[in-house]
Amino acid sequence: MQAYNFSTPTRQSAKGIFVVVFVNLAAQLKRSIPILVVFVLQWFRRPEKIQQFAWHIGFALGLLLLFLVIRSFLTYKNFLFYIEEDQFFLRQGILKKSKIVIPKANIQNIHISQNLLQQVLNVVQLNIDSAGDEGSEIQIKALTREQAQALRSQLLQSRVTENEPIAVLQDEPEEQSQLILALNPLDLLLIGFSQNHLRNLMLVVVAMIGFYQDIEEVLISFGAEVDDEALADLFNANVILASLILLFMGLLVGFLYSVFSVFIVNFSFSIKKTREALVIQKGLLNKNQFTVQLGKIQSVEYITNFLKGLFGLHTLKLYQTATAKKTEKKNALVGLRKSHLRQMEDLIFGSNPLNAVVKQKPHRYFLFRLIIGGLIVLGIANLYMLIIGSGVLFYANFLLVPTLGILIYLRWKKRYYYIDESYLVIGSGGIDTVTSIANLHNIQSVKFTETLFQKRRNLVDLHINTASNKFTIPCIDREETILIYDFILFKIESSFVNWNN
Amino acid sequence: MTFRNNQIDLAALPTIEDIQMDPIDKRYYKVLLLNHGILYIALIALAIGLPYMVTKLSWMPYIVLVLPMLCFGILLHAFVVRKGFSQRKYGLREHDISYAHGWVTAKHYTLPFVRTQHVEINQGLFSKYYKVANLKVYTAGDGDDVHIKGLSAQRAEELRTFIISKINNASV
Lengths: 501, 172
Fold this sequence. Notes:
The complex is a heterodimer of chains A (501) and B (172). Chain A is α+β, with helices and mostly antiparallel strands.
């Protein structure tokens, strides 16, 4: 392997110009979708008008394209990065120059990805997440794979080895990695099949309500006859049958969406372990390779549900500092069995915190609060139905009341907490079963709150914050909370274990 | 489990219930009054001005319904602020800072200095006049930062110096 030297300012691969052009083009297209829609509609309505101005339109588009190409070329020319004294530098900008500096110690994780275009051009994209605020991610859009891997290993390499020859370090990560899990297409189908389809049903319903008007307009503009009455007639004829048909169709769409999205996002999924990091690979259209440093993980979350439970499948989420929202989706690892979870716990925590768990329940007042919340939702829904004024809608209560009841019961049943001398474990979830684990030394701050109603019952809510998550233990006894509170503070303040090494 | 610590006597741990919590500066109440007063006046002005601008609104139900409700809301808010003011307290220990506030929902925060990222003092226009300041202590991530409003400007500065010295000592 060729040794790469990043101490002098380096440009990305020349193919980067294409990538930048396409990225800009895609961004422009996205922005001008409304104009395009109008344009196409006009074309259908009055083709002769468009033909009259065809030359002007072509010229304008050509000019725009030329501008984009020149701008992309300049963007490429002015995009320089280098490593100097344990810091990563990035200079960019054509007229408005900017310089970004990230100390190596602040780099949270680095991932390499490859979308369709980059696959065609045979370049990869390198993303650097820093511990800073949201949006501080750096993207280098076109590097050769070797270049990217060399840059990654240099950025992740600790300070001590900084001055050693680079070539020695380069071969190491690929060779010593140990495969933890690889999924084949059949596994992926199983995972897709066992997703939480109810959530997707909600998405489908929301999307249908949101776009109903738009869909109708587009259909009409293409000359289709949309019959509003047909739907109403269907409902009038047999409410229950019509509802069931709609529900079934929604579920089917949600189901297909789950299966396809899981398949595409997680295609050829694998987890490998290198010396101090996990390397996760996945994706069909957009190939991704994430490197998650074990020491930077703040907390983990296991998610399963009834269906997944039957197959023994779990989704694992790894949480890291600050950029939690951004990395949440990326760091969702699917299709893990119990044995994989134990293996990951060994890597991340050095032990299996779940073995010792004795589930502690919140006070019954929490259930009372859930029921009150459910009643409020029911009230608002019924008020809405009253305003809409369609008597048929009230039948929805036959569906709504049991659904809410079951959800409240599940949320109450799945809620528990456990704290020992090293770990915090919290169980939560409704349809899903969620188990969160955090190391006590990763806790950043603690808080408790008590409303006037809770005060009478001597109950408080305990809030525990890590750099990535906020955990809430609702409605527990005040005296017990104080004990936990004091103990957590004692644990943090009496040790000097770095929470972010 | 590979490693176990010795038994810790939980009852013997220093407890937050022993912290001597100090009230914030009384002058901050005036700042609150001024800030909220401006808001109240703006709301009432808007409520009175609206029917003049929107001619479709009829006066009668408006005067009977909306204005009394608004006044009641303002009085209620003012009452809650009054009640809540005496709940605003802070306490300092060797290794952490605590802040409590809120009457309807009482909140109690504690933030250890070993996890503190940085400290910030800010002062609004009225705060400047009454020589009070707000102290904000940050941790990593978007967790609950401690934001103590209405310290005397001098006290805020003292606290900041103290916390920064703690942070620097811890990182050495």
